[in-house]
Amino acid sequence: MKKRIVLRALLGALGTVMLSAPSFAATYDLTVDYVEIDTGTMKTRGIGYNGSSPGPTLRFKEGEEVVINVTNNLEEATSIHWHGLILPYQMDGVPGISFPGIEPGETFTYRIPVSQSGTYWFHSHSGFQEPDGAYGSIIIEPQKREPFKFDREYVVVLKDKHPHSGERILRNLKMMPDYYNRNQRSLGDFIMDVRKNGLGATLSERADWGAMRMMPTDIEDVQGFVGLINGMSPDQNWTGLFHPEERVRLRFINASAMTYFDVRIPGLEMTVVQADGNNVQPVKVDEFRIAVAETYDVIVQPKDDKAYAIMAESMGRSGYGFGTLAPHEGMRAEMPELRKEAPLLTMADMGMNHRDMGHGDMGSGETGKGDMAGMDHGAAPSGNSAMGNAAMDHGSAGSMPGMDHSGMAGMDHSNMAGMDHSAMAMGNRADPFYAAGSGLTPKAANGGKFLSYADLKAQKPLYADRPATREIELRLTGNMERYSWSINGVKYEDAEPIRLKYGERVRFKFVNETMMSHPMHLHGMWSILDTGQGKWNPVKHTININPGTTVYSETEVDEPGQWAFHCHLSYHMATGMFRKVVVEGGPAVATLKNGN
Amino acid sequence: MPSFKKSLIRHIATSTVLLSTLAGMQAPAFAGAGHSGGHGGASTDIGMPGQLSDVRRTIRIVMEDNFFDQEKIIVRAGETVRFMIENKGEFVHEFNIGTAAMHADHQKEMFMMMEHGALEADKINMAMMEMDMGNGMTMKHDDPNSVLLEPGQSAEVIWTFPKDTELEFACNVPGHYESGMMGKIRLQ
After folding, report:
1. HSE-CB of A320 using CA atoms within 13 angstroms
2. What is the CATH number of the domain that holds A562?
3. In chain B, which residues have their Cβ closer than 8 Å to the Cβ of A416?
4. pLDDT in tens, A190-248
5. How many CB atoms neighbour CB A122 within 10 A?
6. Which residue among A149, A457, A459 places its CB closest to the CB of B180?
7. From the CB of residue A552, how many other CB atoms can be counted at a distance below 10 Å?
8. Residues A498-521: pLDDT tens digits?
9. Within an 8 Å CB–CB cutoff, is residue B117 touching chain A?
10. In terms of residue numbers, what domain contains A309?
């Protein structure tokens, strides 16, 4: 084993993940071990790499070939998936699709020609090893100068560490899908709502929720976790040092099993420069939401000689991660006040909220008010046709296509002459990637700018823009009552693979018919997220689709072999929201080469 | 959109400024556009447009995506410098001389330009730049201390520096300054 890796693992365990000593070693050795995970308030047995969870930060260089020897010290089979890396499919690390897996005591040698740069991560693709701690980060240095400057950098890995093992969590969810839902609505809530809204409205609303087998508090399936930053709980206070005036690059990775985080650093604006490893045109935000498996790189420039809080509240507000950026060792930032009020899902998140969306109301300048939740004024003209509102049948929630927001994403700037400027508070347009009136629509804690997918524009488009050759519809489906999740109503074990042809450009239409957000991850090939910006559409490896919305992404089918395609929420993936993708044709795939 | 050849631009540029795409618009319509005219910076002496005859030195600056090829510029107090600026990137970039506070103000304006579509990542929409923003101002970008260049364009700025002000050169296209597309100007 390389000394440097051991050293870094140790440093990681100590919480000083300073990345100042880059290693361009082409060979890495990783062991997969049972480890103790200590959050200060609980100690659990988990799984890690090189003796710790999270595992080390692997630092590759674009253009080199890396060789990674992975030795399984567990009593069960394991695997490592290199999340977001473009590589030969046999190196992708999905048991049953890429390779058979790594048996106990076995060493598997991964060989990866590194053809990209940016922030990525790796994790086990076996059982619930990833929720149990088997994850680490990857930094790939680019060959060319990056379109931004920074003086130092830190990886900031977020994790929802739960006291229960992944296996136990799924067992409990199967037994009782709301096992981990602390905020169930009570009889008291019912009486309050009757007082406020009247009995009829309250009963009808409750009936709608019942028909969906969902509750408005079903934002997070699995509550009761502690948020970790680089393996450290809020009490343990992970700290990154800086000198005032320095530009600090923070490489955020959400390695959580189930939890989205809303990330902010009170007192600092964050300039987002990368999403899922790909450079984006820099966009300044006060806060951003990171879906499970996504990465965002931001640059901050703390000017004062004081401690700044890195605050990562979970989307459902049931937990949070916390760390500090500090000018000196031993400082702890003041913790900002937690936003206690948990968001509630609304009828819009069922794909039902079409009743009040008369277009005559739009452009009235009343953004951020009630049901309208601030329609995107600029996009209103192009959005009309996509919102067939009047015809919506509230009784058929199960088959409801949901609003088509794709038409709203693209702001046609050439056509804005008649805009109401007073309504255009800077950066406060409604996010077109949430259903209008959605309870999940994020708001920045300081009232400022919250990042939207619509803000992401590729810095340098990876692919020429061209029309897709065909469209494949993927309805994201599930039955909350039985805690089973599926695509087009069919679970993985009952489904045929999705067959793609090498050389085609396929357009995926994700229709979220559930009331949860799903981060869909296609392995091996990029997903070009359609934000309506043509050649500037950003390239990602994980696409989040919110309840009641339809989102499109396109993929240039340029890698042969077979790949996994799934929701990255661990327990959704495990219960069936998963597909195998087979790419037919293309260059002959070399036979599996490894050290065995 | 008007398009000028480099030689023509240089010719026009001999006196004060030149903003290739805005040639011919003389009125300083956006008085607060990040210099001494507005935003409480009235007392700050950032220098003034210089005369070609006073130029003793030319500094070449190349714009890339998203950085300048130079991290800082050193000039003598009171010196008149000719900057020859070339945009070799694929995005629109600005070269602007001012204080950090002026740049911060100007970034808000540039953000609005982008929000309103007057400025796109790789092009400038001239017609929109002249539109009234609803507050009596337009987004015309014709200040003598700055140039806004589309990919492939070049321009000159002749500037007489003050005696002792803390100045920066910067690109205030949204996100670029924060990404490090700026540098200090040291007056000696």
Report:
1. 21
2. 2.60.40.420
3. 116-117
4. 777 777 777 777 777 777 666 655 666 667 888 889 999 999 999 999 999 999 999 99
5. 28
6. A149
7. 23
8. 999 999 999 999 999 999 999 999
9. yes
10. 146-181+217-345+440-451
Q: Are residues A371 and A493 in the same domain?
A: no
Total of domains in chain B? 1
Query: Of A380-394, B78-92, B145-159, which range is least confident?
Result: A380-394
Report whether A219 contacts A25 (CB < 8 A): no
Instruction: Count other Cβ atoms within 10 Å, centred on residue B76.
Output: 14
Strands (E), chain B: 48-49, 57-64, 67-68, 72-75, 80-87, 93-98, 146-149, 154-160, 167-170, 182-187
Q: Which domain holds residue B18?
A: 6-187
* Those residues with Cβ within 8 angstroms of residue A264's Cβ, 6 or more apart along the chain or in another chain: A270, A286, A287, A288, A311, A336, A444, A445, A446
* Min distance B176 CA to chain A CA atoms (Å): 7
CB atoms within 10 A of CB A542: 23
3-state secondary structure of A82: strand
Total number of domains constituting chain A: 4
Pull the structure tokens for residue A73.
């010290």
Report the phi/psi class of residue A469: left, alpha or beta, with left for phi > 0 and alpha for psi in -120 to 50.
alpha
Which residues, in sequence order, are bridge partners of residue A545?
Answer: A518
According to DSSP, residue A159 is labeled E
**CA closest to A536 among chain B residues:** B121
Pair A360, A413 in one domain: yes
Distances in whole angstroms, Cα of residue A218 to Cα of each of A168, A350, B188: 20, 12, 64
Dihedral sign from CA coordinates of A290, A295, A297, A300: positive
A-contacting residues in B 62-101 (Cβ below 8 Å) = 64-67, 90-91
Distance CA A135, CA A160 (A): 12
Question: Which one of B66, B131, B175 has the shortest CB-CB distance to A283?
Answer: B175
Cβ pairs A/B, distance under 8 A: 65
For residue B56, the domain's CATH number is 2.60.40.420
